């Protein structure tokens, strides 16, 4: 079975974006609560792009199931206030629930959280618990920078975040550490903010004893871990210079990387330096890069091809494609079992 | 000849740091101008660490010459005000002038600039011109985030920066795009802020037509370009999706990467995806990582070993070790010639 750990509902109806824009405009005009509901989409409207694009590509590329969350770039935690973030988050998670319930063999649900800059993540617990316990969500995305490129909240390792980590441990679901859009003109979202968020989160974890406090907490760092595998020597060296334990011991029971790296040399490097137990197949499809690589004739984001081409044994590929995802997201097993028939 | 394009005066006397701390304290106590001068160091004091560490390692590792600039992490443009930044910058550049004049075969001077957040970089032109024209400096470091991790100034491609780019072109010196310390608790300096700064700068350049306006402007992105080579497929794909020219045409006449990547697999990847003309040997020695890699038995930052081990021909190694540096920093030729004997 091929499990893609990194999918977003990027083929949602365009009207979703228009609705969100109106919500932001309403906020800017002074509306700080009582936001209007999204109108009901028909199944046809809601599933059109999904079927013609994401499900078609799954089938073409041989991907069985994707972990599926709201569009990361549109989480926009920096927009509006906490009430708006909560309202928007529920709207988005409702759509994920609907899609994954309609196509449970193709998609398993992963939640957005109602983060808001300056607001303690305690405000996320209710939404997270509801989605996991009532609707079978198997994980969530946590934005390490709800300020959208200004990084004004505390690092992930600060006790500011502890109630969220406690809840994740209690529910036995992992977090993908994934920033959203950037409102800082310095950071292009998919070309800078995403990769910087990944790199920054990893270094925060390296500096801290978070996983002593939460030995079973699991985090997935997307986009191949940002700059981390490329600079694996730097990180090993920094840890050593600081008298920290070796990375394997310090982090690698808890931190995982996806394969959203859009060329063969990058995925080769990952598999060379990162233990195979810590690599989860992911494609972010349909996402950051949509074109055909003229050097290969295949889509940049057809990352399955890169994993297929790795010079590793089938048992290791099995880990990357399926086993690691089931281990990191244990609730996925129940989801798959329940929807097998 | 082996030229290391990335060295900082990290072995300066400890008293320099104490002096700087006192300056920051004085500012915080209300002193906003008329900062006290650094006391004169004797040659013995000033060169002690340099001789016992940096020059010894150069000799041990077979490095002939390093481009030598003030300690990047201590530029601290976010500290104090413009007057303090100017004072501190002159102090640091004076030390670089003294060191490189004393050991011109080992070191060629590269300048720090008196940047300050919210201040247009016009304020850097006089210092830059003085160092280049009067003292033979061959390049400078430009901090893309003078706010030290809050990224509140405009992107490098904004016309805010144009007077500086004009001056660099006029003087025919390149800029290494190098952040300084971080005052944002989210960003560890060498483990996150540096690599994020590199990645962010590259993406800014990808989005802009800066090099149409300045066809001869040259920028070196240190630390192997942050996340860039690892995500070269992503960048090629993003450029293509946006209808931008291929990266080679768009950027690679103007943008260069050093080899400050502290393990063999990382340097292998660089040389696989980045044209050899765009790679400059650099070690950042003595710098970010000082220990011995237990996996190899050699120093993490002995990057010459990684380049030596690349599966490329001698002509290509010659480019990485010498020719590219002479081309990107043309004033280096005069420096070397002048101090040959």
Distance between the termini of chain A: 15 Å
Average pLDDT reading of chain A? 97
Helix share bin of chain A:
40-55%
Helix/sheet category of chain A: alpha/beta
SS field, number of helical segments of chain A: 13
What is the assembly state of the chains in this entry? Answer: homodimer
Biggest sheet strand order of chain A reads: 1-2-3-4-5-6-7-8
Biggest sheet layout of chain A:
8 strands, parallel
Shape summary of chain A: globular
Give the ordered list of helices and strands of chain A.
EHHEHEHEHEHHEHHEHEHHH
User: What is the percentage of strand-forming residues of chain A?
Assistant: 5-15%
Please tally the β strands of chain A and state the result. Answer: 8
Question: What is the radius of gyration of chain A?
Answer: 19 Å
Largest interface: A-B, 60 and 60 residues
State the low-pLDDT regions of chain A, or none.
none
